[in-house]
Specification:
alpha+beta, five-stranded mixed sheet, flat, 6 helices
Length: 280
Amino acid sequence: MFPTVQVKKPTFLVGEYGKENLQMPDNSLRTGDSKSKSVNFSRKFVPGQPLNEHSLSDSVYKDDYDQTDDPFEPESDTTENILSVMELIDEKAMTDMVTNTSIVTNNTTLSGQSQWSDLEHSNPVKDITAAVNSALFVDFNTLVLGRNDYNVLINHPEIRDYLKWTKSGPVGYQDLLGVFAPFGFKQILIGKAKANLGKEGLADDIQRLWSGDVLLAYVTDRPGRKQINGGYKFQLENSREVTKEYINNPPKTEIVVRDYYNYQLLLPEAYYLIKNAFAS
């Protein structure tokens, strides 16, 4: 949802275009020596949020080197784990941002029988239709929901009814996309990330980061600072690096991964949030 755009400096400018292209004169006719009707077009630079340094570290101890056998490789395994944790932090932050009704103000909240987990009474296609019709600036082309919620939706009687003449077996990804493609959707993103949200030292609390909410979004296929999109990950060019330092007390190698980037929401109108589409 937030494509990566490389920038050359930690502080930078982002192009922003006005919505004057939606303003329509009565007509564009011109006769004789009359002047052409005038339309306006605004563009301005918006300061990008300064990029932040992100960094995590872990250590590889002497015993790890001595006792690790192929196919494991202690330094690369540790680096990959650090990167995985950094991505998990980012996924949680982005999820919290786009499922916040005070940020994505174009939203609706479902409850009771209207929730899509109520297979007998809910009407997901009707709710998607209403959401699509609310798009006044850019049309949504992406549907985002959690893995468990996706499993519920592909078994929803209404979805199966739409496919009854073309599909007799289980409903898959392409089938579900086919139901919503007429509304302009080109992809369905399924949030699969899970994280242990329990406090350190307490019992594990492993949860899916995407759960309950459904997001409609416009995602550009041409990421860039001049391209309209709901948000971007701005990353400093050549900023990701992995360093290692040997420490003798105790003997170990400290591996540090660092990067400079920031996730920035640019156009809230590019999203529509269906809050609590599924009961938790």
